[in-house]
Amino acid sequence: MASIKGSRQRGIALHLVLIVGLLLSVFPFYWAVIMSTHSSTEIFSYPPKLLPGSHFLENLRHLFDSVDFFGSMFNSLLVAGSVTVLVLFFDSLAAFVFAKFQFPGRRVLFALMMAIFMVPAQLQAIPQFVIMAKLGWIGSMTALIVPAAANAFGIFWMRQYMKSAIHDELLDASKLDGAGFLRQYWHVALPVVRPGLAFLGIFTFMGQWNDYAWPLIALTNPDNVTLQVALSQLNGVHGTTDYGMVMTGALLALVPLLIVFAIGAKQIIGDLGKGAIR
Amino acid sequence: MATAPVVETPPAVVATSPVVHRKKGILSHWRLYAAISPFYLLFLAFGLIPVGFSLYLSFHRWDGLGSMEFAGLSQYRYLLGDSQFWTAIGNTIIIWALATFPMIFLAIITAVLLNSAVRFKNVYRFAFFLPNVTSIVAVAIIFGSVFSTNFGLMNAVLQALGLDQVAWLNSPWGIKVAIATLMTWQWTGYNAIIFLAGLQTIPSELYEAARMDGAGPVQTFFRITLPLLRPVLLFVLVISTVTGLQSFSEPQVLLQTTDNNSSFAGGPGHAGQTMVLYFFQQTFDNNDFGYGAAVAWGIFLVVILFSIINWRLVQRRGED
Q: Which of A40, A42, A171, B27 has the fewest CB atoms found within 10 Å of its own CB?
């Protein structure tokens, strides 16, 4: 009996520690809600407010007056959406080739692709900027979409997935039925690897939505930027004066991400673990 | 990474039989090459050519507009004696250490607890992962208010406890602690999920055998869990080294208002200026593209050296 009691106590202690961790994880979001619902005077007063206030709509109006919030949100959706579609298509197509076909140069090309993982972004930043300036893309969303349209991580990820998920017999059978390369890709490969595509899609969308350093440099027109850059502008100009308004913007920028994450959480968390111990 | 080795099996030859293959040669595979070409074209235009160009650039002086001027090794020589760059290296490593060691420690503990908790596991995993999916700009703004000197939550807590307030974003160590706290918060849950996946590959018979031999939980952790977790630990350490040493967004957003000259200055006395922030300042604020390229190669070297040192340390410890 004593040992059962002991293990129950240990169980309670365990959950207490985990709950503390959980509260620390979500607290900054709660804090953002607190600040976005108070006026500046309330925020600057002591003791700090710990419960939501009533100035949310006022902060929201200030936000929409100071920055083209929906314009930048549209830009972010445009960039993240287009990149996701392009990445899913190009990466899965290349991955299908690497996973299931034999051709001259296959090993070298694959090794080359993996080496690209290692190249840090700063080494590319200046020449990319120069090239895009020559192409006339600086200041437009094209500068963000085109270079991100295919990536080594996605090809590697989808290749690992396709190697095990697509059975060679299936491909052989479809070939006997007269299916060409594209039909094999579209009708045999893609339906089988939907879970892998879902992970890559969510991962890509969130990564693009959050991207900050390159957009900050490439989007030279301050009136036509993505949401992250707009937020940063808000913080730079109003950060020390109108915290409630800036915080409202930060909070609203999180909403689409949280929705995508809530939809794909199970997939992401499960696959992330699998990928790491592979 | 290598706990479950992937066995490389030669892919089935679906496209053509060997005989036909030899006859038609490379051209017969044009569909396959076309299918992988988008990545390589993009890589050529926005990866390989830029890297080569940045090497070329690092031997030249260029403001991005006028004509280039050959400078030989002079920019690298200048870099070696550039005290602001060395300060940036120091800042980066200190912030990395302040963030990474607590993060790995907390992540392993969280993973072990999650592994033994039966109920609500998915709720915990969801909540712990949440910090990682949120945009760094929004989070940095939120942390900026937590660490604010005048009305920040941290100082309010210190005041309530009767302690002296700290000018977090105005003092050399306050800045580093604030940035590191933000990074630790953002990455602990992510790495805990990875450690958890590693823990789940450890056979439960090992734990039962240890219990039979009378090993306590602490002994079991250090004798079984930690050694078997080493491949995952190595993975986490390498990833956090490569990403941590290239941190940019966190200090940039947190400290952009504290200096009027450059939003990449990294706060008073450059105390929060990381290597990549310094790169941005030299390149895009000073328009010194040539020197910026040299700085970028310097960063690349530091990251590689530091990764090798880390790798060696973890592996060495494993051999004892």
A: B27
